[in-house]
Amino acid sequence: MEEQGIPLGLGRDRLDLTCEEFESQLAVEPDESICSLLEDWQDVVEHIIEESGFPKPQKRLEQEPVTCVRNLKMAIFRYLKGTIETVVKPQKQITIRAKGSALEQAGDNLPPDAEIRPMGSGRSLEIFGLVDKPFTWAEFLAATSDNRFRDSWRDAITAVVMSSFPDRVNVDNSQIILSSDEVKAYRVILTTATRYYNDFIEFNVYFVEMLRRTDYGDRATSHLLRGLELVCRFRFTFLETDSEFAGQNVLNSGVERIPSIASKLLKELNLLRRDAREAGLDDPKVWRNFVTWDHIKTMGEAYRPRELKLREITAKIATARGQAATLATLRQDLSQVLEDMANAIRPENTLLMQEMAHKLEAVVQEADEKLPASS
Question: Model pTM?
């Protein structure tokens, strides 16, 4: 016996109607295929009843095929109205899948065979300069090995995932990463960790773009204010003796704290770079509005090689977790570079801050002079 589907007339276009609109437009004809099928079923039931020696039942009004089909279509329509039409996930999301036993042995890193799978439609792996496809953790690290942000990516993702293992509630959602093109910054947020009976755990991780602050008014004054903020932040972070990143403070920190200090240092370096680029302050000619070319050159020559050295040392620290002797040596190296950078850049930073403060004072004075005199 051949079977075939019977159309109900409940196409996608009909689901745009409300239940009231659909009911008012619903017309069921006795010669519809589904009415005929239902009538055939009723005849079969009646025949079985008669063959069993019982009298043929009389159909009630609500048992008429047209009435039954109308009620059936309304019930199906109400159900379909409550189902999902589409799901759009524009956020950048990945799922990391690994064995719990492998995570226990991995320490402060993810297992090399942990799987990274991009999810949704946000092209998640573009953040890292990669195409959206599954990677193992080892493949991901190898594919991003030439990027200056690779170590901060590794540390951030690992910190977020491992902070929830094995069953912790207070997850570390404070991690921030930069995109490979340095244009955007993202918070790394773990939403769920699902454990299966076969020992696999899946971690759903979102990369949520950080909001950009909108500048108002004249572009020159915006550059001045954002630039002054960056100069002050750099001073507070690297040049003041009370800073966690002051060379002597690092040197006198416990070895067990060095990985955490290095991770925060790397995050701050990345954010300074992102903020400078976002504000248009990664162009040397912008700084020329405040100081001479010789001063700009001196700052660059003092900062760039030391920043590179700091990134190299923090990368080594990340791979030396738990190795006290190695971390002690790296602590010394990190402290020395921070001391050298502070000594080389402090006079340049002071001059730049003073010149920008004078410029800001002049801008305010000039603006006030242009105001109409009060009566």
Answer: 0.63
